[in-house]
Amino acid sequence: MKTGYSIKTWKMRLFCPEKQMIKTTEALYREAVAFYYVLLKEREELCAENLLTIQGHLEKLTVSGRDGREPKYIPPGGKLPVYFRRSAMNKAAMAVKTAASAESFPEKIDANITFFKGMYKDLTDTSVVLKLWNGKKWIWVLCGLTGRPFPKEAAILSPTLVHEEKWLMFHVPVKQENSDARAAKERMQEGARVCSVRFTNTDSFAVCTVLDEGSRQLAVKNCRGGNAYRHHCRALLKKVEASRAFTDKDNVSQPNRKYYMHLKHLNEHYAHQVSKEIMDFCKENQTGILVLPEYDEDFSRISMYRSGNYSPLHLSIRIRNYLKYKAWAEGILVLELRADGTEKQCSICGATGKKQGSVFICQNGHQVNRFLNGARNLGRKCQESFRKNNKPS
Ligand SMILES: [Zn+2]
């Protein structure tokens, strides 16, 4: 299973109302980098250490300690803000490492400012606040940004100020998890089996089916226990209600804590049980990819509201999360795919149809459990989306 991260640089244009302050800050930064660079050059044995260790040594040499330690060397400007100097130390350390491996130390090094946390704040797609040096003091300055918006759910790393011709650019490293879809494509090409899931609000927490690469159904699994779960929860909620009358006026922070803890454990217990059943089913049938249904936000909100807080469907949120990490541990890829339309089609012949109670009946008379019908269609929809992408253009 492929895991890990990729880092891309987001290049944005920066508009700073204080051009002069950018200049003085950059000048101070270059001085600082040169200062640390010289210190390190004289201590070549440090080059082999990691950046953090090097930083520690430089701090000892240049910053006074709480224990009254006097620094041997004073950095430019006397005292530099902690994240400003650490950024400069890192830059100098990397320059020395590079120089050491090339066995030639340049006289001067060119350094663009990298803003560590603490030197910038409120970074959005359209603006950032930078801590700049005006020659006398540090000032927070709001700057504009233009460029494509950051990807969702990505980690933003320390940005660097770069001059490109007459423009001021803000290079922002963006760390993203490797796309599962890319890995899934490879698995599909290798003929991986797909397990698709449909969560329900009945006695079945989930109905699952395994399809082979030709979309033929190999196995079906029904994870029951929804009614028992609902029953347990109701009994506990009644106790909560009953105890409220006695504890409401008490000066207690969580009067029904005992029962709420029971409820929490009940949720965890059932979510573990169901996710384990699904994982076992996947393993028994050598599934490479697990497909979970995704709905649009409004639909999810409404159906969750209707099904209530302690319902099998509501528990699917937790089951889904457990499935994600359990599948990961088993080397099974999880994909979430929009389930729109998967209920309205017959999974046997593709014709439209309608539900009657728990059964889906198509125009051609096929009858299938409606949840199984939805699960099968979801699995096929997933397989088809990959086939489409693989067609030679
Ligand atoms: Zn049919």
TrEMBL record:
Cited InterPro entries: Cas12f1-like_TNB
Pfam families to which the protein is assigned, alphabetical: Cas12f1-like_TNB
Stretches assigned to the Cas12f1-like TNB domain: 318-378
GO molecular function: DNA binding
Keywords attached to this entry: DNA-binding
KW DNA-binding (keyword) present: yes
Protein name (record): Transposase DNA-binding domain protein
Organism of derivation: Blautia luti
Lineage of producing organism: Bacteria, Bacillati, Bacillota, Clostridia, Lachnospirales
